[in-house]
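Q: Convert this sequence to structure tokens.
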Amino acid sequence: FECRANSHSGDSAVGIAARALVERINDGLRAGHAPRLAEEGSGGAYLLSDGKGRVVAVFKPSDEEPYTPNNPRGLSSPSPRSPFLLPMFRGGAPATAAAGRTRART
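A:
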């Protein structure tokens, strides 16, 4: 397994920082620090570590959101008592709609 920077990152400050972060993540993978499923949440969010085992990034696969086929927490279909069926949630929203607003706590 290897993490790669987007080929469109360029030489901007953001692109340089992204490549440096990717290299730190790869150092962690080479050191045996596998991605860890975050303890909180209802979808899949994985903590990525550097070579020293410090969490430096979060990876959130869109196909592991609640009620998607690969949800690692067993939430692949809603139950009648599910909090996701409350009126505050929009029915029919794509599983990835909330991913952009999610923040990791470490």
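The beta strands are 36-37, 46-49, 55-59.
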